[in-house]
Every structure is written in C-alpha cells, then in structure tokens.
Specification:
Chains A, B: This is Farnesyl diphosphate synthase. The structure is a homodimer. The first copy, chain A, has 15 helices and two strands. The first copy, chain A, is mainly alpha-helical.
C-alpha cells in the first residue's frame, strides 16, 4: 500500500464514522428519509473530497475535527448529487458502487427527498459551531459551498451536460467539455481545497493557490474518468464502463483520442503539482493525489 | 381592500422585485436551469412566508431590506419544495396556480435541478452580508432554515405524508395529522416568524412567542386548506379541489367533519392572536394574518 492509499483509507474511516454520527437514525415515519440519506451517503466511496479538505486544512494548521465536519458536509452534497443524478429522469442508473441506487432500494419519491434532505443537512452542519469558532468563517464556508453546488457550479454543470443532447455535435469541442466539467465536478474539488484555506483564515494568495491546484487536479481526474470508461475493467472500476461511447457522448477521449487524452491528463497532473510550489512536505499527499488521478484503476 | 390585503400586496411586490434580482438570468447552456428556477419562483403566489418575516422583523426594529432577503431565501425554499412536490414521482401535478408545473413547462430533469439550485441559492443568500452585518446572526439563520427545511422539518413531513399510504388507516388520527402538518408546512411558518426575532437579536422569550404564534397560525392555515379542498371553488382557489377526498386521504376535515374542523381552525386562530399579547399595535397585521387564515377563499 502506498502512503497515499494508507492515508486515504485512514481518512475515509474517520469520515465514515463522522457521517454516521451526523446522520443519526430517528424513529417515526420520517425515519425512512434518514435511512435513505444514510444509504445514499454511507455505501462507501473513496471519500476523496473530504480527504482533500483535510489535506488542504493541514497546510494551514487547522484542527482535524473542524476540517472533518466540513469534509462531511461536502460529502453530503456530493452524495445528494449522485442520488439525484441516478434518478430515472436523469441518468436512470440501477447500480452505484455495485449496489442498487437509492431510488431502486427505496423508491423515486424517497430518493428525491433524501437528496433534498442531504443538501439541507450539509448547510446545517457548516453553519454549526463545531466547524469553526469564528462565525464569519462559517458564513464564508456556507456561501462558497452554496455557490459551488448550485446553479453557478455543479447544478449549472449538470444542466450544461443535459443540454449537450440538443446541441450541434460540432459545437461540443474541448473548450465546451472543459467548462462543463469545471462546473459539474470541478467546482466541488475547488471547494474542497479552498475550504482548508478558509478554515485556516489564510491569505488570498493561499486561497488562489488551492483553487488553481484543484482546477488542474479536477480536470486530470475527469480525463482519467473518461479513459477508465473506455479502457477500464467493469469489476475494477466498480461501475458500468463503455457507457459514454454507447450513448454517443462526446468526452475528452472521443475528442482527443486515447493517447492525447492521457498526455493531457499527465500534463494537468504535473501542472497541479506545480501550483503547490510554495508549500513544504506537508503538501506531499496533495501532490500524490494529483499523480494518483492519472494512474488510478477505479 | 382590507389593510391586510393592501399590506400583503405591497409586500409581495417588493418580494417579487427582489427575487427577480436574486435570480438573475445568465447566458450559456446553464441559463436554462436559472430560467426554470425563475419559473418555479416568479409565477406569483401570495408571498405569505416573506410577509411573515417582514412583519415579525418589524416588531424588533429590523431594517426592511434585511428581512426582505431572508424572506426571499425562505420563498426559494418554499418554491423548490413545490417544484419537487409536483414531480411525477411525488404528487404528479400538471398545473400550479393555473400554469403548467415546472416539469411540464421544462422537463423532469430540469425541474429536479431547478429545485436543487433554488435550495442552494437560498443558503447562499442567507450567508451573504446583505442579510445582517453580524455573521453569527447569519449562521443562526442558515442553521435554523436548514433544520426547518430538511429531514427534521419539511422533508421529514413530506416523508411522513408519503408513508401514510402504507399505514393502517386507523392509526391516522388527529395527533398523527397534526404532527405531519407541523413538520411539512408548519416548520417553515415557524422559521418565517422566528427569523424576525433572530434578525433583531431579540431575547429567547420573543423567539418562543414567535414560534408559538406561528405554530397555531400554521395549523389554522392547514385546516383552512383542507376545508377549501372540500368546500372551495376551483376557479377561486386556483388549484384543483376535492383531491384529498378523491385520493381517499385522511385530513383534518375527514377526521373531524366540516363543522368541527372550522371550530378548531377558529380556536387556533384566536390562540395564535393570544401569543402576541406582549406586542403593541405593530403586531396588528400578524393578528390579522391569523384571522385571515380561517376566512380566506384561496
């Protein structure tokens, strides 16, 4: 096991325990929506986004418990987006990480409500005083996450993605796909990293460095995801592969070809590492994450 | 026009103008989700919840612009819940206020995203410094709204409502329906009123008085809603009537009968007025709201 794999596993364990506590079961008929929220959140996953929050926070001397709660709030947002994405009206997926998707396990109405409840819970956690004693910091964390998750970010990116079906294929070029991914998946990665700097009340230059790192790393992540869809093995990847091509969907790989896509991902990973030049060895796991993005098999 | 009707209309005009500004259209493919968010929010409605925020805030000397932004954030939450409620997997409604519902005007995927985007935007607005110069007040407003809108509140109530289909009808009694409504619709009314006290940094006793008023008033509102579904005229009410009975749904009216339900609504309205005993004439419009609840025709 590499240092990164060990650190990721150790962090995921803490994240899972904290998510379990933040999403405590309740009695009564409303217990079912909590159960679905737990199902949508606690079925595993690499917990990459909370790991990034913890690592970035570590650069700025932030106590781990604070970063952990921010990471859990972010993971709730990520999880709600997957629950809604899997719905029949969206991607219509039956499986997620080898298990029935939330609406298959429960039902569509419960899955819609579970996603809605997870989003609300994320902001409730962020506004609470376990996250930071300075309420201005908590407000900044709430506002930044709301922007990253909402129409100016993830939700906007999902809309751009849906609209691609109605676009002249000739207009779906690299700049278009890049912007789509920066909104749809990139903005939450940026949030993960900048949240560490916000928690540390770090100067603007640090916030910009974290965002620049996350932008390059997130795009490398996405290109690697497209490569896995073409080249990956379904059992290893843990979800269906070949879906983009089957759907006739334009991706970095369909537009650039496999070789060029791989070169671009490598280039972006090194560029991400370069954004961390001002930081010492405490940024080594962030450097490793960027490089891992382009070598991962799942 | 009564004083209340005039005040409601004047307030709705300000709310609509501010919502229009807070949900500014954007270019690009993601513009479609903003368009759907605007459609789900700006198609009219009484703007009762923002009115309550403004009136409650007025008791505690809060500048109107601050209360207006909190009222708009709350209205975005209310609007997102209607957009998601109308979806085929939920209530499957084609019309809302005489217009096609969001998923009929756009499509299901866009309506899901529009609801998600509205929820995020509400918290973004609340965390911003137009709402209050003291960030602790903003954090309190975010945390309280997240709780009222999420699984411990509205979302939980929607779940309890969905579960009623699977319940032994004999267990759906007045305490069950009361709790269901306190979660599903009551918690946002409570938030509307307590937000005024939070904005005014008022003592705990005032916060409790606002919640007690809202609890009685909200329940009166709900019983009146059930009565309108039985007795109302579709054109006046502005939505389908007789739906509860057609669906075999237990309501205050089906359990208590029309006469008893009306008496209970009247009793609650007067009880709500009683909760305002400590306040002077500045609370007269809140008193009028409670009484209007049980006389309204739409």
């Amino acid at each position: 096991m590499t240092d990164l794999a060990a650190a990721l596993a150790a962090s995921a364990e803490k994240v899972n325990a904290r998510l379990d506590a933040l999403l405590a079961p309740v009695d009564g008929d409303e217990g079912r929506v909590i159960e679905a929220m737990r199902y949508g959140t606690l079925q595993g996953g690499k917990r990459l986004r909370p790991f990034l929050v913890l690592q970035a926070a570590g650069l700025f001397g932030v106590p781990e418990a604070r970063a952990l709660d921010v990471g859990c709030a972010l993971e709730m947002i990520h999880s709600y987006s997957l629950v809604h994405d899997d719905l029949p009206a969206m991607d219509d997926d039956d499986l997620r990480r080898g298990q029935p998707t939330c609406h298959r396990k429960f039902d569509e109405a419960t899955a819609i409500l579970a996603g809605d409840g997870l989003q609300a819970r994320a902001f409730e956690v962020l506004a609470g005083d376990t996250v930071h004693p300075n309420p201005l910091v908590r407000c900044q964390l709430v506002a930044a996450l709301a922007e990253a998750a909402g129409a100016p970010g993830m939700v906007g990116g999902q809309m751009v993605d849906l609209m691609a079906e109605h676009r002249d294929p000739a207009t779906i070029d690299i700049p278009h796909i890049t912007r789509l991914q920066q909104l749809k998946t990139g903005r939450l990665f940026e949030y993960a990293c900048v949240a560490g700097a916000i928690l540390g009340e770090a100067p603007e230059a640090d916030r910009q460095a974290m965002i620049a790192y996350a932008r390059d790393m997130g795009l490398a992540f996405q290109i690697a995801d497209d490569l896995l869809d073409v080249e990956g093995d379904e059992a290893t990847v843990g979800k269906g592969v070949g879906k983009d091509a089957a759907a006739g969907k334009a991706t970095f790989v369909s537009l650039l070809g496999i070789e060029e896509a791989r070169r671009e991902a490598d280039r972006l990973a090194e560029q991400a590492v370069g954004q961390l030049a001002a930081y010492d060895a405490r940024a080594d796991l962030l450097r490793a994450v960027a490089r891992y993005m382009v070598t991962r098999q799942s």
